[in-house]
Amino acid sequence: MAVFRFIHLSDLHFCLHPLRRNLRMLHRRRLWEQIDSFQNQARDLGLSTLVSPSSYDPAITAAAARFCYDRRRIIDAIIVSGDLATTGKPIDLNPARSYIEDAALSGPYINSFSQSLAATGRRIYFLPGNHDMYRDDSGWPGSPHFHLMLEKHLPNLTGSVGWWTRTKAGGQVLGCVYGDFCLRSVTDAGNVAFYHGRGRAYPDTLKKMVADTIALKSSHDRITLIWLIHFAPFQCPTSLQLMDWQNVTKEAERLGVLCTLCGHTHEQSKIARDKHVVYCSGSAGSVEPVGESRVHVIEIDPDRSTAQRQNFEYKAMDQSFQSVSSD
Amino acid sequence: MNQHFRNALTRFADDAVVPPELQIANKWIETVVINAFVGGEASSFLPAKRRARDPWDDWSVDFVVHIPGGSFVAERMLEHDNADIGPAQKLLDFPSVFVPSSRLVSLWIDGVAEFAKSGDRKDVDATILKLSTSERSEALIRRISYIVALYAHQRKYEDQLSSVPLAASNRFDLNFQLVLSEFLPLVPDRSDEFLSLLQHELTTAFKAGWNLESEEWGKVKFEGDSIILYMQKPKTFEDPGFELSTEG
Q: How is the beta sheet containing A276-280 ordered, strand by strand?
């Protein structure tokens, strides 16, 4: 039985400043932790960073790299559904780039503090998330740097949409169409207060995804299709919403796409409707929410047209991801 | 210039005897100089794989803590129960049973004092000089445990070794000695004394029945006249039925 197996990561949030927390996130912590974090960050990084976006925890991203490295022989590829970096500034994108492409020497380690998924020897498929496209810490969209630095890893990309396929020796093909729904302008957010976290299912991007999906179906006899986007195509908090998300799921269902992989919310979830499933990944690196970091192993059986996911939670005590559930 | 290279040249000129440092100096030339110019791979403790790097880059951030007023302190490191060891690995903790002798600490402090006069770490080194005697001792223990853990970690992944010798026949393993010398600022001409004293004191501690055990690292044991790290093998998942797909 040939199965396609992928590790699904999302929202790593690499940054110049590890362990940076945003004021809005601090209120979720216990009072003494708030004071401690506030004091330490203001001292070490400067007061102004408290209004910058939250970044990543190196212990978690290291555990994610080890997780991928340990399973390199049982996976076809690694999929990262966006937000590799905290902002689209080159200085924040650089550790993300390093994590994706730098050669490692010892296991997944480049050196004591840096890891690389490249050590797995597996293809890494990803796309940008809203954070990757921030021009600055204020979250203004439209940074060109993600594409300048990492576009070479995005296969068959035209505009905001691309696709890739994987083929088993038995002839089974898995096709993935990915689309970038990041805001092109602040005014596209609908409400300017939410431009940081919102995306929009732009009709032209969706149309291209549909066209690529149809083209893949017509060019392969035995193909199973999945979609990869950053924003969650379901009802989620207002500030994180993908506007017109219903159009995305409607088209995915109509085209017989097996599942959609996404991230963005930092909360693991699964939404199933008819035969289409949306697998939303937890964060594999962000400092927030504390204690809820997740990585996932997705298994797709092309013969039965089924998808299954195993979820792994980061355990700080062991500094590793451990299996918690499957869905 | 690397202290061992200077040291070796001095001794070589003085007594025309090939000193042990020359071996280290040779390795240093081979690894740092040659690899720097021909472009070595990522940082490694193995000479053949190493390129020039600033060893201080490998220290935990907890060793360099900035505080208001523009000075650096190492205090936080001393308070830290779980000093960050290597790439987010579990702590390989040297228990308090190992207490370095005052001579060993003073040899290290002499080196710190010498190197504190200049260099990127002069603020950190100057702060170490202000520490009390017990704090200095603790700082040295933490540094040595850090180096052991970092060294073991890299050897584990580079060579897939299940055991790494740290010392044999009353001498530190040459690779390990090189790493120790590189990470710890030592006064040229006194590095020999420091290393042999450290080797002796560690061996004595191990002989007394001190076994370091860690779920992540395995065990550190004294056997015969050797100190050996027995490490757990990296875990690799296998699925014999899995068949890798190809792109396209």
A: A269-273, A276-280, A259-262, A223-229, A173-179, A161-167, B246-247
